[in-house]
Structure prediction request, 647 residues.
Amino acid sequence: MTKSQTSIEIRNLYKIFGAHPEAHVEAVRRGMSKEELGARHSHILGLNDINISMPAGKIQVIMGLSGSGKSTLIRHINRLIEPTWGEIVIGGQNVLEMSETELRDFRRTGTAMVFQKFALLPHRTVIDNVTFGLEVRGVDAAAARATGLRWIERVGLKGFENRYPNELSGGMQQRVGLARALSNDTSILLMDEAYSALDPLIRTDMQTMLLDLQKELGKTIVFITHDLDEALRLGDQIVILRDGSIVQQGNSQDILLNPADDYIQRFIKDVNRGRYIRVASVIEPASESALPQVPAEMMLEDAVKVLSDAAASAANVIDAAGRIIGAVTLRTIMSVL
Amino acid sequence: MFPDPLEHAANAGERMDWLLKFPQLDPDWLLTAKRAIDGSLKALTRSYGQSIEDFFYPLLQVLIFFENVMANAPWPLIVIAAGALAWFASRRWAEVAGVVATLAVIGLLGLWVDSMKTISLVLSATIFSVAIGIPLGIVMNRYRRLGAGMKGALDVMQTMPPFVYLIPVVMLLGIGRVPGFIAVVIYAVPPIIRLTDLGIRLVDKEMLEAADAFGCSPSQKLWKVQMPLAIPTVMAGINQTIMMALGMVVIASMIGVQGLGLNVLQAIANQYFTQGIFNGFAIVGIAIIFDRISQAYGRRLQKHRGASHD
Ligand SMILES: Nc1ncnc2c1ncn2[C@@H]1O[C@H](COP(=O)(O)OP(=O)(O)O)[C@@H](O)[C@H]1O
Ligand SMILES: [Mg+2]
Prediction:
């Protein structure tokens, strides 16, 4: 399958909730704070000057505590929420300029969404839920069914086609939600805390499945979570939101090694850094050649194991082609962890 | 000269009068207004009576046909049909037995034909109420302004003593099946309208978001998401509509509807206690049959809607 070519550009996005959002957008753009807007004008500043460039074919994670504006942000991408100000350009097309029918068409064929509480239709069986998007689009029933069955099998629910959602566990229901989204064969996949309602073990399984699928599909995925481990594991790029503003954006290495402020520092304090920091991020110039070798993409946790197995205090780092590009020492690794 | 104390008191009384007696519109004027309204209604009936009757003639034929089918069908057929319906709705033999037993008692008391007439009226009024009530409920939900107005009208309809709307119905249509049917429908239709609207409003917000996110058009959203999810509430509305229709049967007998209600009316007029009780119980029995069947059906529709077990 070909990788998604669809990037998502969000520029100067503002969302103000309240009776007269337009009246306050100028003041907010000139720097009025969320507190002031709330206290003086009883409007809620949902999103404040958001700029994100989400690359095509990658997983973009948006992270933040509850109420930080994650759901509001993701709903701007398929325009379930209208912005107060700003631009959203998807695959070169400005979403805000779409007419009602263009927007409907874009939602049918351009984006698919997975929801936190699954949002499955209780009166429909698994297969009828999975083919919902195709049915809405007007795909003929037999073709829709074939596609649906293929995705049901792909998410590991073969044999459950004719069950009803309330006969399934939460994890299985969300597999149905995922199969429903994937059946639509869209280049963009929007996942709003899709795994937040699941037990930790099931959640890890679902993350693994998503990563496997993504290797194969290469969609542009926007994944929302309030869980740092999930963000670090899944995100090619991560944006951290707080009170509607972006606090930091970058990849997992940037966030773990150069946290932008105390807020993020506190966030990353308890995470197992060795599991998410790559050897490449702590690389030093190579000096000797007779050392054990570790790939640049390896996580520190695993590199430590290699070093201790070899009873060495340093290792050479090799790139994908097997060339030595530098070294890591146990001392540096320990200082980072 | 001292003022006459008696005259003084009389004057005071006259002065206090406006406080004790509510100022009313001029009685002559009121009388004229009432006469004018009634007169124009009567004139309307005189000049359009025939066309109004012609207009409702097909309805009359349907009602008569329905009543004849119910009243003249061989009784075993009706019992079997009712039993089958109970089975279809509930899949439980106990329900079937209850329904058959109730019908048997009604038949043994000599109330079979009257009961069939009553059931036929209630059923046709219910079908008609559902047919107009569900679309009206959808309209009420979709157009908020209009919906607010409709809500007011429904409040009035439900609070107005039912006898009152018998009057214009009788003035326009006289006495008989059609006016009875219309009175029953007016009385029974509000719950189905309200509960259709409520059912649509209660649909989970995330569900609506999902419909939008997958690009549903407004009508796809209504028929694929909102209405199916509103069904349990709509069923509760249908159940209430049936009960209201049955309740209206006695009152409608005052304007010429035949059946159990008429017997009750006679019993009141002539103080036939036992006749009143028997017919009253027959109405209760029919109510229970309708209630059990419609509720069991509603429950079966909801089988897959419970909370998930995870
Ligand atoms: N429709 C709305 N009206 C008013 N305030 C809203 C609305 N939707 C969201 N908000 C507010 O915007 C903020 C962000 O909400 P949300 O995007 O749901 O956060 P998150 O998904 O990160 O938990 C919250 O303070 C919330 O109360
Ligand atoms: Mg949220």
